[in-house]
Amino acid sequence: MIGRLSGTLVERAADGTCIVDVGGVGYEVSVPLGTLGRLPGEGAPVTLSVHTHVREDAITLFGFASVDDRAAFRTLLGVASVGPKVGLAILGALDARSLARAVAADDRNAFKGIPGVGKKIVERLLLELKDKLLVSASSAGAIAAPVAGTKPTAAKSANDTGALVVGALVQMGYKPAEAERAVAKLAERGELAGRPPEALLREALGLLG
Q1: Whole-prediction pTM value?
Q2: 25-30 and 59-64 as β-strands: parallel, antiparallel, unpaired?
Q3: Helix, strand, coil percent content, the chain, rounded in steps of 5
Q4: Are residue 73 and residue 112 in the same domain, yes or no?
Q5: Which of 43, 110, 117, 138 has its C-alpha lying 20 to 30 A from 82's C-alpha?
Q6: Are 8 and 45 in contact (CB under 8 A)?
């Protein structure tokens, strides 16, 4: 089982996948939107905490910015009706800390608008995750900082973030035209620049809802 990857980011796509080159081998990894948005530029070093999901017909790698996010993902997979796609969608809107706070506060609204997460699943999450989401006090993201010279301009950063949100929405099951309209509304409000992708995803889900 692969539990961690450290290498060079050679590709990232709006559908939530990236490729990390480790010693000449390119590993394709699916990551939550928040993690995807914080990845450095292509060619920069990157480290991801990884969950290896094994099925009879496929082996899929899921990457996370911290061991806490990976642990939360694994805990989510233990909830009935929550598979990797739904778990990734939840962590795309709520990181491990936010998820733990939502469960502790019995906050049903925190899950509003996340595709695949209906009332029954929310009730299961709030019931089954009690006392199971323990976030380390000194948790730190595992993503390497971008190397010098790779910092994007504000406009490019906003465009890249918008593309990530569109890709995440399409991956969640929305039509491309719907996703693009939601992100266009956020752009009209001037909300794309300087905001984390996971926050924008929640805004977009609210517009679509």
Answers
A1: 0.69
A2: parallel
A3: 45, 20, 40
A4: yes
A5: 138
A6: yes
